[in-house]
Amino acid sequence: MGIAVNGVDISDSAIEAEIMHHQQAENPLREAVHEVVLRRVLLDEAARLGIAGQGEDERIEALFACEVTVPQADDDACLRYYIGQAERFRSGDLVEARHILFQVTPAAPLELMRQTAEAILAELQAQPARFAELAAQYSNCPSGAIGGSLGQLARGQCVPEFDELLFRLQPGELSGRLLETRFGLHIVQAQRRVAGEVIPFATLKAQIADELQRQSWQRALHQYLHILVGRADIEGVELEGANSPLVQ
Question: What domains can be seen in the chain, in order of their start residue?
């Protein structure tokens, strides 16, 4: 059995043309079929309602504009969302950090570097005040010239394993173990921590309103598509209308 929508066959050529837009999908053929069928459902509904346009996309957009409406998010809704998502709306913490990097090279293999780094770490645990001196002497990072200082770092500025360790350390704390990354072995010390601040609601109100509006529109559109798909006579394929890229 072929695929048909409201008694009209869907051609193989239409699916072949659409499949090129879904090459990154897990199942490109299925996604293409669903997209072509859903588009046909929407165009049929536009025709039924007498909605015109210069092309298919314009008619579908006009259909959505007529049939899918959502209220504007008011100040109270925005404030409730702001309070409920408080962690999202704060600037990130900063940590002032320094490190000593032991870079692994063919001339300095990992085990040799590890022995040296372990010895320097033990020295720093005994004499923390020597950090800048030993960084200048041993670090393979340009920061060694300024005592190993990396300045203030936010989350995401370093490789994940460095981030994870750094933001667990307390101010002034020297890591009790070497950290291994793709750059080599690190001795890491957190220094001053600068706490992030909550961004004022007034600064974010318009952004939150837009986000709530998009969420409401997506929900309303998904509901509308499910209604249309349930009402259409679709043969040869089971379709979940809300899964289409048309609604993104």
Answer: 4-74+202-247 (no CATH), 91-194 (3.10.50.40)
- Cα diameter, the chain: 84
Asked if 74 contacts 168 with a C-beta cutoff of 8 angstroms, the reply is no
Lowest-confidence pick of 8-12, 99-103, 150-154, 193-197: 193-197
Helices first, then strands: H and E counts in the chain:
8, 7
Query: CA 83: distance to chain centroid?
Result: 22
Burial 127-138 (b: 16+ CB within 10 A, else e): eeeebeebbeeb
Are 179 and 200 in contact, with CB atoms under 8 Å apart? no
242 within 8 A of 226, measured Cβ to Cβ: yes
Beta strands in the chain (DSSP E): 4-5, 8-9, 94-102, 149-154, 179-181, 184-194, 234-235
Which residue type is seen at 241? Answer: G
pTM above 0.85, yes or no: no
In tens, the pLDDT along 127-178 reads: 999 999 999 999 999 999 999 999 999 888 999 999 999 999 999 999 999 9
Do 10 and 237 form a contact (C-beta atoms < 8 A)?
no
